[in-house]
Amino acid sequence: MTRLNIFNQLPLTVVDDSREYSTIDSALARSQSILEMVNTDSDQLFLHFWPLANTVILGMIDRQLPSFESAKKYLENQGYQVAIRNIGGLAVVSDSGVLNFSLCLPIGGEDDSNFRIADGYLIMVDLIKEVLKSSGKVIDVKEISQSYCPGKYDLSINGKKFAGIAQRRKKNAVLVSIYLSVSGDQKERCRLLSHFYKEGKSQESKIDFPNINSQCMANLSDLLETSLTVDQLIDMIKETLNQDGFQIEQS
């Protein structure tokens, strides 16, 4: 975990909202606040866990669906809170079986002057690979084009995506966020967003919205063949960082 280890001399504050589900607005506001703090004070890191009850987080591009309001109403009628995030990507689903978390890192110092956009993604990739190393599974990093919110840094096992990464930057800080499908009904998540794009008439758009295939996505618990939970994964992430020399402080 070489890339992230360059930060292990700084205190790492853990903000854990997993005991009580946040609303999407409060979660995004907290992330923004953390980004602002690190942008102002570069002598700190933050790790923010923010699982959500039934929620669909849309990307800015999703607003360009020809029938966006109708598609958004469909999601709300299915019992999901809906929000548009100010970070990259397209629509993703959150529920009790999905873990969202963010790493906020300082990048404005002299030693960080060559911190590339790719580095933010690769730090998160390295962390997840380290966390799951004991499983013995090969984690691939490549776009799964028929997943929802496909991207260059999708994480998959045997061709099935279980996580996606996005990031947001300010001058002196970067916020790298990931969702991990841990357990639950992944096919239903795919069906929900597939219908969202159908309702939004994505086929009439000049934008290449994803044609979602549920066979391209899976939960970590299924891929690892274990009864992994969100809480267990949170503990694994904390333990990995602790073993790598980070001084963890609870907020």
TrEMBL record:
PROSITE patterns: BPL_LPL_CATALYTIC
Parts of the chain that traverse the membrane: none
Keyword Transferase: yes
Stored InterPro entries: aa-tRNA-synth_II/BPL/LPL (IPR045864), BPL_LPL_catalytic (IPR004143), Octanoyltrans_LipM/LipL (IPR050664)
GO molecular function terms listed in the Swiss-Prot or TrEMBL record: acyltransferase activity; catalytic activity, acting on a protein; ligase activity; nucleotidyltransferase activity
UniProt record, GO biological process: protein lipoylation
Pfam families from the UniProt entry: LplA-B_cat (PF21948)
Enzyme Commission number, as recorded: 2.3.1.-, 2.7.7.63
Keywords: Acyltransferase, Ligase, Nucleotidyltransferase, Transferase
Signal peptide start and end residues: none
CDD domains in UniProt: LplA
Domain BPL/LPL catalytic as annotated: residue spans: 39-228
Protein's recorded name: Lipoate-protein ligase A
Naturally occurring in which organism (per UniProt): Streptococcus porcinus
